């Protein structure tokens, strides 16, 4: 029996929490048109699409990031996420409002959200996308959506200079 090996699509040894601009594409499962339709060359979002849009915009309330342009299509999203360098470098340099806990079961340190609900460590693109996909799936399933919403993984491209951006 042949086992299919998934191709790794991330750059080896690249730190995806590095400050920079990232172009991401997130697709629906089986490229199903869950977010609306294009009518007269204009994307018309349905209720699912409006929920996706709302959750995308709320990412800045959870992570220390900026959201540049984005577009929601019937079966995927294109967006630019900007990660800025933060002044949180390690445990000894943490801001006072950051709470810490040590799990007795596994002795790992965990950074918890501060009072504003922001993640205080510099997030990776993977963490941001994982959170977004989970939040959207949870909310849609809570409202009766029964299908798998997202395709596994996502696509990203690091925007290294302005010529790539334009």
UniProtKB/TrEMBL annotation:
The organism's place on the tree of life at top rank: Bacteria
Q: Name one GO biological process term.
A: DNA transposition
Q: Which SUPFAM superfamilies match?
A: Transposase IS200-like
One GO MF annotation is:
transposase activity
Q: Which residues form the Transposase IS200-like domain?
A: 17-166
Cross-referenced InterPro entries, in alphabetical order?
RAYT_transposase, Transposase_17, Transposase_17_sf
Give the protein name, as stated in the record. Answer: Transposase IS200-like domain-containing protein
Task: Tell me the organism.
Answer: Candidatus Roizmanbacteria bacterium GW2011_GWC2_34_23
């Amino acid at each position: 029996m042949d086992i299919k090996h998934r191709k790794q699509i991330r750059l080896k040894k690249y730190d995806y929490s590095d400050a920079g601009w990232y172009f991401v594409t997130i697709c629906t499962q089986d490229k199903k048109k869950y977010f609306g339709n294009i009518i007269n060359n204009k994307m018309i979002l349905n209720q699912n699409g409006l929920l996706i849009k709302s959750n995308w915009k709320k990412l800045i309330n959870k992570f220390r990031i900026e959201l540049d342009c984005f577009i929601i299509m019937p079966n995927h999203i294109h967006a630019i996420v900007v990660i800025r360098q933060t002044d949180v470098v390690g445990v000894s340099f943490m801001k006072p409002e950051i709470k810490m806990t040590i799990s007795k079961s596994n002795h790992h340190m965990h950074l918890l959200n501060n009072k504003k609900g922001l993640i205080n460590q510099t997030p990776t693109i993977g963490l941001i996308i994982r959170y977004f996909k989970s939040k959207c799936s949870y909310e849609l399933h809570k409202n009766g959506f029964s299908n798998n919403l997202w395709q596994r993984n996502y696509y990203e491209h690091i925007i290294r200079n302005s010529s790539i951006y334009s």
